[in-house]
């Protein structure tokens, strides 16, 4: 696992341990928290027109919510003893099979509709 990623994972773990939060971090609670934080991320885009330009103040709020989703996801991987790098690469491998370049390039259809 990447050294920087491992340091981040250890920092998250220590942060939780120092506050005695392990007792609250069941897989169910962490999954719920990921969903809540993802909804908070979506709030930043609610009622917005599709626009690639995002002002710095809003980008900061978005970055905070992305960080929350990532932190809870990394924590859930730790609790379930999953390697996030490995499972992400495995998922990309599966997606490469589902979405071959010759059928999916420039196409947003679901793999079942390609």
Please characterize this protein's 3D structure.
The model has no long low-confidence stretch (mean pLDDT 93). Helix 2 runs antiparallel to helix 3. The chain has five helices and no strands. It has 114 residues and is an all-alpha fold. It is globular. It has a domain of 78 residues: Helix Hairpins, CATH 1.10.287.
Summarize the structure.
Helix content is about 65%, strand content about 0%. It has about 110 residues and is mostly helical.
SSE layout and pairing:
Layout: H1 3-18, H2 27-43, H3 56-79, H4 84-98, H5 101-104
Features:
mainly alpha; Helix Hairpins; 5 helices; DCTPP; hydrolase; Nucleotide pyrophosphohydrolase; dCTP_Pyrophosphatase
Tell me the β content: under 5%
Which homologous superfamily in CATH is the superfamily of the domain at 3-80? MazG-like
The end-to-end distance, rounded to whole angstroms, is 35 Å
Number of helices: 5
Work out the helicity level. Answer: 55-70%
- Regions with little confidence, pLDDT below 50 for 5+ residues: none
CATH topology of the domain at 3-80: Helix Hairpins
SSE string: HHHHH
SS elements, strand count: 0
Q: In oligomeric terms, what are we looking at?
A: single chain
Calculate Rg over CA atoms: 17 Å
InterPro entries: dCTP_Pyrophosphatase, DCTPP
GO biological process, one term: nucleoside triphosphate catabolic process
Keywords: Hydrolase
Protein name: Nucleotide pyrophosphohydrolase
